[in-house]
Amino acid sequence: MNGPRQNLHRPPVALTIAGSDPSGGAGIQADLKTFSALGVYGTSVITALTAQNTQGVTGIHLVPADFVTEQLRTLIADVRIDAVKIGMLATRETADAVAAFLRETPYDVVVLDPVMVATSGDRLLPEDAVEAIRRLLPLASLITPNLDEAADLLRTRRAADVDGMLEQGRQLIALGARRVLVKGGHLHENAAAVDVFVSPQQEEVLSTPRVDTTNTHGTGCTLSSAIAALRPQRGSWLEAVADAKHWLTDAITAAEVLDVGHGHGPVHHFHRLWTVRPPTV
């Protein structure tokens, strides 16, 4: 049928700008799974290839910054984008290229996950690229650093408690960020997983039960992409953040059924969609 398109269902379209994870638990792969699970059509621009599994990263092959720009410009010349999630940028040149793209083509929903250290402890961003990430802060609608990343951006020690997280959120706002979600997943001061949301207008402490599991590979990627996916479908940033956090908690809780890898396993992105059936004989 060659007639006009009928807009029977127009899902949001999200773009992830990030690195690839062959194990499927983090990076581009986790972002696309998250978008699909939350009713969003996913597109992607790859910044780096990694050799990694659930136990660690053994190598990184960089995509040249000018080709990252070519991917972006070719994509948006044809495809509408409703939300952008930015993950691993790998180099100063790539971070600056993405910043230039966002200045040329601003979007209302831009979630920046300043990926610097993997769950396994492997450092994914060289020191000379941190300043380029700082330049990106005002171009993002929301940044989602974990405790170590917030400390790196501020050139200080990581927060030791919720009050410290709130203060570092305020300092990141002063540095140019528009909204900040400081993730406290590595803060073990109580039985809850506590994040703090900070903007010039409000501050909120968000708490969910801490899940006792090793299936935490890609949790940062997954949370930031969930926020990007949900923001066009929710009435406020705080609502999108809170719903994404609860969805991620359920995805972590359900991850045991996957049995992927021998290290930090992935979360179950499709926990609401897959039905676990007993094996057939």
Describe this structure in words.
The structure is a single chain. The protein is of the alpha/beta class. It has a single domain, classed as 3-Layer(aba) Sandwich (UDP-N-acetylmuramoyl-L-alanine:D-glutamate ligase). The chain is 33% helix and 20% strand. It is built from 8 helices and 9 strands. The protein has helices at 27-37, 65-76, 92-104, 130-136, 147-154, 162-175, 219-230, 237-253; strands at residues 13-20, 41-53, 56-62, 83-86, 110-112, 142-143, 180-183, 192-198, 203-209. The strands form 2 sheets. Strands 3-2-1-4-5-6 form a 6-stranded mixed sheet. Strand 8 and strand 9 (203-209) form a beta hairpin. Helix 3 (92-104) runs parallel beside helix 4 (130-136) and helix 5 crosses helix 6 (162-175). 48% of the residues are buried.
**Name of the CATH architecture:** 3-Layer(aba) Sandwich
CATH class: Alpha Beta
Structural class: alpha/beta
Beta-strand portion reads 15-25%
The arrangement of helices and strands along the chain is: EHEEHEHEHEHHEEEHH
The main β sheet shows up as: 6 strands, mixed
C-alpha Rg (nearest Å): 18 Å
CATH superfamily: Ribokinase
Q: How many angstroms separate the termini? A: 45 Å
Q: Helical content, roughly?
A: 25-40%
How many structural domains does the protein architecture include?
1
Low-confidence stretches: none
Shape: globular
Put the structure in a nutshell.
This protein has 281 residues and is an alpha/beta fold. It has helices spanning 27-37, 65-76, 92-104, 130-136, 147-154, 162-175, 219-230, 237-253; strands at residues 13-20, 41-53, 56-62, 83-86, 110-112, 142-143, 180-183, 192-198, 203-209. Helix 2 runs parallel beside helix 3 (92-104) and helix 5 crosses helix 6.
